[in-house]
# Entry
Amino acid sequence: MLMSAVRDHAVVITGLGLISSIGNSSSAVLESLINLRSGVETMQWLAVNKSGISVAGTIKDFDVSGKTWAQWKYPDNYRIRRDAMRGMAPHGVYAVCAALQAINDASLTEEDLSNEFTGLHCASAGSPFLMRQHLNQLYEFGAQRGSPMGIVSTISGTLNFNLGAYFRIKGSNLGFVSACASSSHALAYACEEIRSGRQLRMLVIGAEDLNAESILPFAAMRVLSLNSSSSASRPFDSHRDGFVGTGGAAALILESADLARQRGVHAYAQLQGWGQASDGFSIAGSHEEGEGLARAMTRALKDAALAHEEIQYINAHATSTQVGDVSEAKAIARVFGTHNTPWVSSTKAITGHALSMAGALESAICCLAIKHGFIPGQAHLENVDPQCAHLRLPTRSLHVAPKHIMSNSSGFGGSNVSLIFSSP
# Structure
């Protein structure tokens, strides 16, 4: 495999892997999206807390609630080496399974992954759950009795440590930490690695734990929904009252378009452009007028060499919070106007908000929408917030084949990323 083989440096997505609340495969996720089937359920470990939070986007067929890796269970069709499990967080298990799906989907071999032209970008918040276990052990028994894997299994780089070793990555290996924009940044800079010719292929993974330690701290910020129904997440609805947390993993294989053609593999979509901009406004809240996100979208359009009229669908970041949804609606109006905007929906209505994994999950959803020719509907929308009324919000999934899709992500500190996916 030679660098000179790349001619155009266009970037395509050739493999997807998903462990999510709405399905643990691309086909299951596709069915949920088309039928707007929610993955939100009551969680007992949430119901017993004193915050009133009772629902989450649950991950089915996995049990990683035990205090040690030896107690964890995952579907029988996956095989994870026991020695590798020792250094993993719960979301590391999700991530390996999603990565194996994506690798198989892209028809890749071990040699295809383990070479100097294939890199790895990851995003997660680490594992507060395991951090608590290890710190409790430290205080009870002393530092010398702690787990030697305590650091690598808990801090925010845990995916890079574990997956880089597991898949024997020899190219670039980076982690991204920009809160809920993290995995969109991971994808964007993976795109740049391929565009520049430094890498020919990138494995990009976003993953998060799903437990009380990863979700309940947001209750203190008053941003979690107190609704107890499966429709608790209701972006753009006037009765929304906060987001619903979720976890899991999403993996995408990015390759140079030339390499994909040489290998004879089908591409889901082209990652045609991206843009980023910061609000410069608040530690946690979105800019009230959506200024930073509007700049990110404008830069993405410029990078993709597209006019705003060419975007058929926007997969919104909208998390179902009072301020965030309106901020994004205003940002969209700044860029696309208030008449005949693209179709807009937030699939967090059925998946829940996957935090730093959200960008990767929603990018995979965009790829499925392009490949299968549909636009995901806006689930749970009954009464549109008047400040969002200018948006074209389909209440059911549409049999419309989008050629160009924009996906938005926003994180703490006003970090905004917009990605544009196009038919290959």
